[in-house]
Amino acid sequence: MFGLPGPSNMNLGTDCFSAANGLVWMALFITRFHGGYGDLSYSIPEEMKRGAVIGNIAKDLGLDAKGLSQRSARIDLNGNRRRFCELNIQTGELVISERVDREEMCGSKSSCPLKYELVLEHPLELHGILLQIQDINDNSPNFPNDEIKLSIPELAVKGARFSLDMAQDSDVGNNGIKNYLLEKNEHFSLTVQSNSDGVKYSELVLDKELDREEQQELSLLLTAVDGGSPPRSGSATIHVTVLDANDNRPIFSEPVYKGTLVENAQIGTVAVRVTATDPDEGANGEVTYEFSLITSKAAKLFTIDKMAGEVKVTGPIDFEDETDYEIRVQAKDGFGLASSAKVIINIIDINDNAPVINVKSLKNPVPENAAVGTEVGVIHVQDDDSDGNSQVRCSIQQNVPFKLMPSIKKYFSLVTTSELDREKIADYNITLTATDEGNPPLSSSKTIHLSVSDVNDNPPVFEEQSYSAYVSENNKPGSSVCSVTARDPDWRQNGTVFYSLLPSEVNGVPLSSYLSINGDTGVIHAVRAFDYEQFRSFKVQVVARDNGSPPLSSNVTVSVFITDENDNSPQILYPTLEGNSFMTEMVPKAALSGSLLSKVIAVDADSGQNAWLSYQIVKSTDPGLFAIGVHSGEIRAQRDISESDSMKQNLVISVKDNGQPSLSTTCAVYLLISDNLAEVPELKDMSYEENNSKLTSYLIIALVSVSTFFLTFIILIIAVRLCHRRKPRLLFDGAVAIPSAYLPPNYADVDGTGTLRSTYNYDGYMTTGSHTSDFKFARSYNENTLLAGNTLQKNSRDNSDFLDFTDNGSKVSTLVNTLILS
Ligand SMILES: *[C@@H]1O[C@H](CO)[C@@H](O)[C@H](O)[C@H]1NC(C)=O
Ligand SMILES: *[C@@H]1O[C@H](CO)[C@@H](O)[C@H](O)[C@H]1NC(C)=O
Ligand SMILES: *[C@@H]1O[C@H](CO)[C@@H](O)[C@H](O)[C@H]1NC(C)=O
């Protein structure tokens, strides 16, 4: 309750309008004024009850109340729309007929008059009546809004004023707004001011600074009080919103953030999340994050989510590259207040690196004679991972003659475990495998190519134990005889084979004049033509040598066999081929059919078939008288000789060998059918008509002397033979050359061993005139002796010599023939 003193004439109680006290009330308050507008003036409070008496007009005018009705007294409205009051004609009292609301009629005007006129007739009389309506405090102060909204920046200074809405009170005067009151609070006080027109208003004064972060809103009750009695009041709520100022920097929740990240984490993985808070509002409290100090390497790997503060992976995280990262993060609010924190990200190793095998050194190639245990290489194995992930085991595949020996740290030696042989395995692919102990383990392998270098440890080896070559005589010089091959498995020059002939002599002549060898191909060539009749075989040592240092060699025997060719015509030993000689056989007149008369002796220097001779009579004086043994060469009578037969018989005999093609020789045999040598002179007439008599007589002399000599010779032979059976050869050393005159000079046999056999045996048949005079010579000639003989000049094996020999010999043979005949 407001204990406000009011003016004494308007002092109204709360029950002032109660009907029971109506009269008392009127007596107190209705005041009659005289003068002014009218005759009568009353002052009445508003809101009087109906029927309430304002005043007694009759009495106040001094009129008789009874006379009023006679005079038709009435109240004229005089412009008022509404009547509000009525005249009681019986009593002359003016009574309220309608509620009077001053505020409705007069608003804020301070005076509110109602004017009437009292009209009386008989006589007409007018009296002005003025009703002055007095205000009563029937309206409370009223704020236009129940809530007054204020926004005050938190940085507002002490003493700042904020005007507030004014309250209204329809009542006027003292009943209007008298004061404003503010609910007690710690920040604000209130001052009440008056406008120039006296209207009161209030202002909020900041007594204590605001802090939005402490208290964001305040509600204060503002009350307006009027001056009525009792006073009335009205209130409104002041709603103060504290406006934020950027007075706080963002604060990180921790000074250091630690995060772990497995390497190779996927892009987008959150490594760590930082949070900073800023109690400010709006942009002032809007925190964004950024890296403030970051290495360029880390910058490639991480980003920070501006809003969420998540540090995310953007690149490949490699433990082997960096094991931890330190980054400074800054948090900033909308107006740039910032603070920072440290972020440490530890990277966790995963086994993502296979071991790497490095060959630090390699002795390549390895000589094949390297001792067992020789170190051929040094291997280093590296694994970039850490701890168990980098523990490495190293192995090598089986079945190579190498092994790995752990050495210092992660070094291994590759050593040989057995001897190497380039000729068996020339190179190795050694596969090294390294496995780490990670989970799952990673491994890698590397292949080392190791080759074995050659050492000259193999001599050339001939493909065959021995070689045989067959060459036919009269070969072309330079023709190839045979070819030898030796193999050497060594490499290049160590395996390059050169062939040569081991110097030796054949028949006293250096081998080189017979054979040569192609050093590269091993083809053996004849240097000259061979003569089977000279020697039949010989042996040669061929050496195969490699080109190593020192060289290795081996040798092989090549046996050269010369094969015969039919290159010698049969040679008639008897009778001599010479057409001019006296080769006349005496045939006894009494010779019977089948008796042996003569014999053709021929030899052939060739051998085998080539020396197999056959005889044939080609021409004869009396065909049918003589026949010749095809193989024996014996001339026999085919029938008994008769007297009628011509004394002189000529035969032409052909001797042919069996070679291909066959060679033949012919000779003439002169037969004289006679028992008496005295008939001989006819001989020359018979065959050699042209021979002069001088020659005949010389011949006879010669024959006599030679036959004497010959007889002595025969006796001597027989004697020596008896005495020296054991050394017949010696006997013939230096012996007479005559028989040999019938032999071909180079008639030699080469035996299998290659040594020239110095003896030559043949059976010769010498036929005398008698059937029984056949005797056999067994002759053994020493070739050398023969050569040494004075009779012949023979130095070499030249065919020309042979020819010489025949020429010389022919003369002697003539003599011999003559001798035999004698
Ligand atoms: C080693 O490997 C190479 C190339 O892969 C191959 O040509 C060669 O024949 C191999 N050698 C051996 C002995 O396996
Ligand atoms: C041949 O062998 C020798 C050792 O005997 C060696 O030094 C040389 O290198 C080898 N030559 C080749 C071509 O392999
Ligand atoms: C030929 O070889 C044999 C063994 O194969 C050897 O004893 C001999 O000395 C060699 N001869 C030469 C001249 O090398």
Strand segment count: 56
What's the shape?
Answer: rod-shaped
What is the typical, i.e. mean, pLDDT? 79
* Number of helices in the DSSP assignment: 10
List ligands, each type once.
2-acetamido-2-deoxy-beta-D-glucopyranose
What percent of residues adopt helix (DSSP H or I)? Answer: 10-25%
Strand content: 35-45%
Subcellular location: Cell membrane
Keywords: Calcium, Cell adhesion, Cell membrane, Glycoprotein, Membrane, Repeat, Signal, Transmembrane, Transmembrane helix
GO molecular function, one term: calcium ion binding
GO cellular component, one term: plasma membrane
Write the layout of secondary structure elements.
Blueprint: H1 22-29, E1 31-35, E2 38-45, E3 53-56, H2 57-61, H3 65-70, E4 74-76, E5 85-88, E6 93-96, H4 102-106, E7 113-120, E8 125-134, E9 147-153, E10 161-163, E11 177-182, E12 188-194, E13 200-206, E14 217-226, E15 233-243, E16 251-252, E17 256-262, E18 270-273, E19 276-277, E20 288-293, H5 296-301, E21 302-304, E22 310-313, E23 324-332, E24 338-348, E25 356-362, E26 366-367, E27 375-382, E28 392-396, E29 402-406, E30 411-416, E31 427-436, E32 443-453, E33 461-462, E34 466-472, E35 480-483, E36 486-487, E37 497-501, E38 505-506, E39 509-510, E40 515-517, E41 523-526, E42 537-546, E43 553-563, E44 571-574, E45 584-587, E46 596-599, E47 601-603, E48 613-620, E49 626-628, E50 634-637, E51 648-657, E52 664-673, H6 681-687, H7 693-723, H8 728-732, E53 749-750, E54 756-757, E55 763-766, E56 775-778, H9 783-788, H10 799-821
Parallel strand pairs: 2-8, 9-15, 17-24, 26-32, 34-43, 45-52
Antiparallel strand pairs: 1-2, 3-6, 4-7, 5-6, 7-8, 10-13, 11-14, 12-13, 14-15, 16-19, 18-22, 20-23, 21-22, 23-24, 25-27, 27-30, 28-31, 29-30, 31-32, 33-36, 35-41, 37-42, 38-39, 40-41, 42-43, 44-47, 46-50, 48-51, 49-50, 51-52, 53-54, 55-56
Bound molecules: 2-acetamido-2-deoxy-beta-D-glucopyranose (NAG) (3 copies).
